[in-house]
Design brief:
Oligomer: single chain
Distance between the termini: 49 Å
CATH architecture: 3-Layer(aba) Sandwich
Radius of gyration: 18 Å
Strand order of the largest sheet: 2-1-3-4
CATH class: Alpha Beta
Helix content: 40-55%
Number of domains: 1
Mean pLDDT: 93
Number of helices: 5
Order of helices and strands: EHEHEHEHH
CATH superfamily: Phosphotransferase system, mannose-type IIA component
Largest sheet: 4 strands, parallel
Number of strands: 4
Strand content: 15-25%
Structural class: alpha/beta
Length: 143
Amino acid sequence: MRYVVLVSHGTFAPGLHSVLKMLAGGDREDILSASMEDGMGADVFRERFERTVSVIKEGDEIILLADIIGGSPLTNALDVLSQKGLLGRTKALGGMNLPMALTASMMKDAMDMDILTADMIRESQNAIGEMVFPAADEGEEDI
């Protein structure tokens, strides 16, 4: 099985996981999340993450999405996966956002991992932009 695993500071990963349940189809066992909450030490997060990924087996693949590259949730998650012998079957990306996670969740079983990774990054980047509103003319009412 190929899993999408979300990790973050605060409640970002569980919140994004909740949104994915709405958009990607219910309570899926292939989407997992763990977060490092305020005041939580790395040891407690590692225990939480180990419980979260305990269902992942040796032959499974992991798409690990994190809020920040180099952040404690990601580095500790990678260390746990390394200790479990799963690092070689893991693709890790930082800068997690909804388009990236949704693409991973919806397309993970339909694409080669390298193509999927490129699509996740492209979708993530394409979703970032400024909404520009036209200036209201003097004679028009404000909305």
